Amino acid sequence: MATYLPTLKQLQYLAALQDHGHFGRAAEACFVTQSTLSAGIRELETLIGVTLVERTRRVVRFTPLGDRIADKARRVLREAEELGDMARAAGRPLSGEMRMSVIPTIAPFMLPRILPRLRRDYPDLKLFLREEPSGAACEGLHHGRADCVLLALPFACGEVASQALFDDRLFVAGQPGEMGNIDRAMPPSEIDETRLLLLEDGHCLKDHALSACARPELRAEATMLGTSLHTIVQMIDNGLGLTMLPEMALNAGILDHTSLVARPLDAANPSRKIALVWRRGSPREKDFQLLATALAEAV
C-alpha cells in the first residue's frame, strides 16, 4: 500500500502560519501567495485526516493537535536544513549562508568592529544578522530561525553548546556631581536605587546588572524602561538619574558628546560573559567554534 508523506513545503507553510497567526503574513514569509499557502495546509490536513487549523474571518486558531504537529514540523525542517549544513561543513570553513541573532546590548557596539574582519577573512561567508532580545533569540535558535546567537551569559537558553568570547565589565554612569570619587571603582552600596534607570524585562543586561550588585532593593526601586542604552544615556545626560553600562558600549563611545562619567562596578562578579551559542549537536559545530574564535580575536 502506498504511503503518502507530508512535503517539506507543507510543513513550512504550517510552521509559518503558527509563527505569524495570519495567512497573509505567513504567505509573505514563505514568498508565496495566500491561496497557495492555504491550499498547501488544506492538502496536509486531507493527507493526515485531521483538522490542524480552525479558520474564521478574523482568527486563525490551531487545534491542540495542530500545535503539536507544527512543533514537530519545525524539528523536521531543522533536520532537513542540517542535511545541507553537513555538506557545507565538509567544504570550505565558514562559507555559505549563516543566520546569527545578536542581542541589542551587543549588536551596535560589537558588530562594527567584527564585520569588516569577517568580510576580509571569510569572503565566502554570507552572514545574515537579526537583532532581538535574548529570549526571542534563543527561541528562534531552537525553532530554526537562527543558526547561532551572540549573547551575554548567564542566560537560560535551553539545550545549547557555547563558546565564551570575553568578559564584559559593568560600569556605573551618571553626572559627575552624583558619581562620587571617579578615580576608584563604585561599590553597589553607593548606588542610589531611587535614581537608577535600567532596561525593561526581556533585556538580560538588566538581570546581569542587578545580580552583580546583590542588592534586592535595587530590583524593587530601580526604574525599568523599555528603550535602548543610547536613549537611557540621553536621559541620564539630562539629569534623570544614573545607569549601568557594559564596557563594550563605553569603548564604542556611547558617552561621547555627553557630560557623563563612568566608574567600574566594584562587586564580586562585575562582568557579563559574551558568548556564541548554537544548537547542541549541530553539524556545523566546527564552523561555530571557528566563528567564535574569529569574533574574540576581532574584539
UniProtKB/TrEMBL annotation:
UniProt KW Zinc keyword: no
GO molecular function, one term: DNA binding
GO cellular component, one term: protein-DNA complex
Keyword Transcription recorded: yes
Keywords for the protein's UniProt record, in alphabetical order: DNA-binding, Transcription, Transcription regulation
Stored Pfam families: HTH_1 (PF00126), LysR_substrate (PF03466)
All residue ranges annotated as the HTH lysR-type domain in the record: 6-63
Family under the similarity heading: Belongs to the LysR transcriptional regulatory family.
Name of the protein in question: Hydrogen peroxide-inducible genes activator
Taxonomic source organism: Sphingomonas glacialis
